[in-house]
Amino acid sequence: MADTINGKIARKYMAHYIDASFGGETADYYRLGEDLEEFNVELNPDTETSKNILGESSFRHNGYEPSADAEPFYAKVGDALFEKLQQIVDEQITDDGLKTTAVEVHLWKSETGENTFEAYRQACYVVPISYGGDTSGYQIPFTVNYVGGKTKGTFKIDTGVFTAQA
Question: CATH topology for 11-164?
Fold first, then answer.
C-alpha cells in the first residue's frame, strides 16, 4: 500500500484478518472482505443508567462484548479459512475448537517499513451461523466473537506477520 491517506478514510483501509490456523504453530491470516459489502464490529456495550430517590441519574459502563458477522462467506476450494469452517460444520466443533485470533490493521497508519502498519490483535471465537446458500454459491456465514483485551503492534502485509509492541 503506497497510497497516502488524507481526509476521509475509504473502508478498504480498515483491514480485518482471521487466523485460519486456529491455534496452529504458525498463524495463517486471511483477509476478510472479498465477498462482503459490509463488515461492522458491533461493540455491544453493557451499560445501565439509574435514577436515585434524589432525582440524580447515574451511569455505569460494564465493558464491551464485540462481535461481527461475515455474511456472505463463499466457500472456495483450497482456501484455508473455508477448509477450517467446513471442518467445524462437519464435526460440529464447539468451545476452544473455535478459538483463534483476529487482527485489525489500520492501513492509513504506516509504521516502520514498507507494507507495515499499525494493528491490533485480539482472541476470538469464529462460529458458523449456517451453511448452504442459494444459486450464487456454497456459503458458510459466521460470527466473530471477540474476547479479552487487544494487543497493539504492527502487521506486515506481505508476510502476514503480527508483531506485538514492546
Answer: Elongation Factor Tu (Ef-tu); domain 3 (2.40.30)
